Structures are given as C-alpha cells and as structure tokens.
Amino acid sequence: MKKHIKTMVAVIFTVMTCLFGGMNAFAWVAADGIIAVRYTDAPEGTVFMDILLPKNENDKYASADGKPSAAIILHGEDENGERTEETLTLAEDCELAKYDDGYTSCLFGRDIAAEYRVYSISTDIVLDEQKLINTDVSNYYGSLKLAYCDEKGNVLAVTEPVETEHNDKPANFYVNANGTSLECKLDNGIDVGKGLTAFVFGTVIAVCIIAVLGGAVIAAIVVVVVILILRHNKKKNQQYRQ
C-alpha cells in the first residue's frame, strides 16, 4: 500500500512540475538571439538581406577588420527535394563591405552576428549571444535599413530607414521589408502577469490543477479500496482454511 501511495505522490509532483514549468515558459515566448528578416517585392537576383546600422565612430560593436563577421548559410532543396545547406563566401571588397550612406553593413562592419541563415524569402540573423541579444541592437542603434544583396555581395537596393523600439524585455525581433518600405516590430510574447490574459491563463491552470488533483485523489481512493478488499478476501480465505 505504501508503494502505491508513493507512486501516486510522484505522479502528482511530476504533473504539477510540468504545469508550472509550462506556465513559466509561456510567460515569455521570445527568441531574443535572432533578428528575423522577412521580405517581399525584392529586386531580381536577391539572395540574402543584411541590416544596415547607423555609422558611429565609437561603435562598441565595430569589427576589428573588414572581413565578414558571420557565416552566410543558404538553405534550399536539391532536385530530389532533399534539404541542402551551402556556405556563401563574399569578397572582402564587395559592394556591401564598402557601402556607406551614413548606414553601414552589420555583416562587414560589426562583430554582432554569428550566422546568417538564408531561406527563399527570409534571412535569420543569428546573434552572438555571448555579446548581445536582439534588443541590444534595437536599443543601441535606434534605427536601421535593409540591403538587398546578390550572391556576390552587390547591393541591389536599400530600404528607407526606420526607427527601432527601445525595449528591455526578452523579445522576438521582426524586420519586414516590402520593396523599399520597412517595418520593425518587437514582440514580447505573452505576459501572463497582466490583464485578461493573466485571468484566462490563470483560470486554465487552476482548472488543470484541480482536475489533476481530483483524478489523483479518486485514483488513490480506488487503490486503497482495492487493497482493503483484497486483504479482506485474503483474511476470509485464511479463516475458511482453518
């Protein structure tokens, strides 16, 4: 009997841990190590996008040389539909490296990103999280542009600048380009500590906890009753044998 009770307690503890762990993860859903760039109506020949950041002589994220600070990984499919990855190599004197209209390349000018993951209509700029997260970029520079680039690093077009939001919380950082127009958005996920969201989510969690505890209690009662019946029958059988 003690063994069954210990098992039930362990089950209850595991479920409660999962529920509260899930609640904590749900509170802030944010990939703060990535700047997600999405684009439409791109110039013909566009292979990847780079963010252009305001030029600053005392830029604390400036790279020590003119080499690309991150690998550019092209994601695609081969003729059989299998996923492929290819590393794009750019010359150190390509047009993107030399571009300067008051805004300069993140890839060549700053030691910020660890990798550019390039898809058909998007580029995910994966940051070096040992140095910064996406809101550090937003807060420090205050504005940005996007450059449409081909496979040789030629700049095909540049968007209009847009101011970025200052934010000290973990966030998803979305940059959406449509031709020369640009929009930046910081999404903090869902804060379960405020307003209607808190009430709804709290209610759901409470109902789940009550359901789990209720089920556990019922199961425990059933186990106890079964054990008592078995003991009673065993005792009764022993009396008959005597």
Question: What structural keywords apply?
Answer:
alpha+beta, elongated, 5 helices, about 240 residues, about 35% helix
Overall residue-averaged pLDDT value: 82
Give the CA-based shape.
elongated
Order of secondary-structure elements? HEEEEHEHEEHEEEEEH
Structural class: alpha+beta
Which strand-content bin applies to the residues?
Answer: 25-35%
Q: What does this protein look like?
A:
Helix content is 37%, strand content 29%. By secondary structure, the chain is α+β, with helices and mostly antiparallel strands. The strands form two sheets. It has a seven-stranded mixed β-sheet with strand order 4-3-6-7-1-11-12, with no helix packed on it. Strands 2, 5, 8, 9 and 10 form a five-stranded antiparallel β-sheet that branches. Helix 1 packs antiparallel against helix 5 (195-241). The protein is elongated. The protein starts with a helix and ends with a helix. Residues 4-28 have low confidence and may be disordered.
